[in-house]
């Protein structure tokens, strides 16, 4: 390598190491995207950035992050695009080939009838190209985002004035790889936090139910619980003594297995829907061939 190449390699390495440190700090996904664009601003000229995901299940390319002319846009406002399996369209070519692309003649590229092209301004206004006139973009770089060898997205960088070189592409590819790794890490951390919160909530509910069950098991009144499906979920010790039916014979089974005439009986049981105490009632039931008044 000559001296210029060595200086360039050292600069690229320094930028990528710095990006790895900054993007790997456990940021939220949206913050990773913002910081990625801020890092790009220091090293590669651009007027627009679009990060898209690709889902092979439905064949759609969806915008995840968009920035244009100094403004961050609502990614949901950009319509999803259907993958062109013939390779028409810039993003589709990248997804199908798995290779990056550089265009310094965007105005000519958007004339290709095999693709679908849009221009988005800083206010988020979308116009279809080339029907609505020439694009404001002069040059574009597109790099695939891969996971386990499969293309899962595309990152686009666009400039209204500059032209992109092979050196720009090399640096852009490195930053995209760092960003993609940071996004995956942020999503994994978010999912881990969600699972931990769900597990903690489940433990709290289970402990609360266990405590309630222990209280109900110890009270002298016969208590049983029937869920909305008509299945017995609780049958305390006093209910065993009152009916002669063991808990393991009643719990987890339809209440009609214990009370054959449950539909008639349940219609006579007062219900409180507003949290106030229901009035007591005594009803006749037949359990195991015996008539009981409970």
Shape: elongated
Return residue spans where pLDDT drops below 50 for at least 5 consecutive residues.
none
Strand content: 15-25%
Question: How many distinct helices?
Answer: 8
Report the oligomer. single chain
Question: What Rg do the Cα atoms give?
Answer: 33 Å
Give a concise summary.
With 294 residues, the chain is of the alpha+beta class.
What does this structure look like?
The chain is 40% helix and 23% strand. The chain is α+β, with helices and mostly antiparallel strands and 294 residues long. Strands 1, 2, 3, 4, 5, 8 and 9 form a seven-stranded antiparallel sheet that branches. Strands 6-7 form a two-stranded antiparallel ribbon. A two-stranded antiparallel sheet has the order 10-11. α1 packs antiparallel against α2, α1 runs parallel beside α5 and α2 packs antiparallel against α5. The longest helix has 53 residues. It is elongated.
Reconstruct the topology from this structure.
Layout: H1 3-23, H2 29-43, E1 48-55, E2 60-68, E3 71-73, E4 81-82, H3 90-97, E5 101-103, H4 106-109, E6 117-120, E7 126-129, E8 139-147, E9 150-159, H5 166-218, E10 224-226, E11 232-235, H6 237-243, H7 247-250, H8 262-266, E12 284-287, E13 290-293
Antiparallel strand pairs: 1-2, 1-9, 2-3, 2-4, 5-8, 6-7, 8-9, 10-11, 12-13
Defining key terms:
7-stranded antiparallel β-sheet, single chain, 294 residues, 8 helices, elongated, alpha+beta, two-stranded antiparallel sheet
């Amino acid at each position: 390598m000559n001296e210029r190449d060595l200086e360039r390699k050292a600069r690229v390495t320094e930028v990528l190491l710095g990006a790895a440190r900054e993007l790997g700090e456990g940021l939220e996904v949206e913050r990773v995207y913002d910081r990625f664009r801020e890092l790009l601003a220091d090293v590669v000229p651009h007027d627009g950035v679009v990060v898209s995901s690709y889902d092979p299940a439905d064949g759609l390319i969806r915008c995840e992050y968009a920035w244009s002319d100094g403004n961050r846009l609502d990614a949901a406002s950009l319509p999803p695009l259907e993958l062109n399996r013939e390779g028409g369209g810039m993003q589709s070519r990248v997804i199908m080939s798995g290779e990056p692309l550089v265009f310094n003649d965007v105005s000519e590229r958007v004339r290709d009838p095999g693709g679908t092209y849009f221009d988005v301004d800083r206010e988020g206004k979308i116009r279809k190209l080339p029907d609505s006139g020439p694009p404001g973009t002069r040059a574009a770089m597109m790099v695939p985002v891969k996971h386990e060898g499969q293309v899962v997205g595309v990152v686009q960088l666009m400039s209204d004035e500059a032209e992109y070189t092979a050196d720009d592409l090399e640096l852009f590819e490195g930053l995209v790889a760092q960003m993609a790794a940071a996004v995956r890490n942020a999503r994994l951390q978010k999912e881990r936090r969600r699972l931990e919160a769900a597990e903690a909530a489940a433990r709290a509910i289970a402990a609360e139910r266990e405590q309630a069950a222990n209280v109900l098991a110890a009270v002298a009144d016969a208590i049983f619980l029937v869920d909305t499906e008509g299945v017995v979920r609780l049958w305390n010790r006093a209910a065993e003594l009152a009916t002669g039916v063991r808990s393991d014979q009643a719990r987890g089974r339809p209440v009609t297995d214990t009370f054959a005439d449950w539909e008639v009986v349940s219609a006579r049981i007062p219900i409180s829907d507003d949290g106030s105490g229901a009035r007591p009632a005594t009803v006749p039931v037949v359990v195991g061939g015996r008539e009981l008044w409970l």
